[in-house]
């Protein structure tokens, strides 16, 4: 197994068995549930120096999902060009998440997820098997769709283990 396959697998392993399309809504509901119960002050919490705040993490989820959406659209439509990777830390550094309200970040997350759901639910089943190259690695549309979910669950686990526990939620 290549390093890329291992990287992908750690996210895919986060997805509960069953209909992965349904997990788009389930993982969104869990994320929205947590963030809807945070205060503005709590959303500015980072569990350690140099780590993202909860606001920053939420915007990271939206940013990453947007990148994944573009890849899904491109490959579903037959794109043959290698799509570039992205540096999540550079994106986070330039996001100015801390200057936004928790409410606006949560609204953005909801809209981005709804857009992912519509995109994935309306693709022809054959398009899910289309592949393309992103960041130098071949990947299928379906796998990218599943990465949206697995990436979300990965960060929900981090939020529960490293953020909420220190905020006294657990």
Notes on the protein architecture:
The protein is mainly α. Helices cover 62% and strands 5% of the residues. The protein has helices spanning 3-12, 20-36, 40-43, 54-76, 88-93, 102-122, 141-164, and strands at residues 131-134, 137-140. A two-stranded antiparallel sheet has the order 1-2. A hairpin with a 2-residue loop joins β1 (131-134) and β2. α2 (20-36) runs antiparallel to α6 (102-122). The protein is globular. The protein starts with a helix and ends in a 6-residue tail after the last helix.
Write the layout of secondary structure elements.
Layout: H1 3-12, H2 20-36, H3 40-43, H4 54-76, H5 88-93, H6 102-122, E1 131-134, E2 137-140, H7 141-164
Antiparallel strand pairs: 1-2
Helix pairs in contact: 1-7, 2-6, 2-7, 4-6, 4-7
Can you give keywords for this protein?
170 residues; mainly alpha; 7 helices; 5% strand
Taking strands numbered 1, 2, ... along the chain, how are they ordered across the largest sheet?
1-2
Helix content: 55-70%
- Residue ranges: pLDDT <50 for 5 or more in a row? none
> How many beta strands in the DSSP annotation?
2
* Rounded Rg: 16 Å
State the helix count: 7
Quote the average pLDDT. Answer: 95
Could you state the order of secondary-structure elements as H and E? Answer: HHHHHHEEH
User: Biggest sheet: strands, sense, closure?
Assistant: 2 strands, antiparallel
**In one word, what is the shape?**
globular
Secondary-structure content class: mainly alpha
Span of the ends, CA to CA: 36 Å
- Assembly state: single chain
DSSP strand content = under 5%
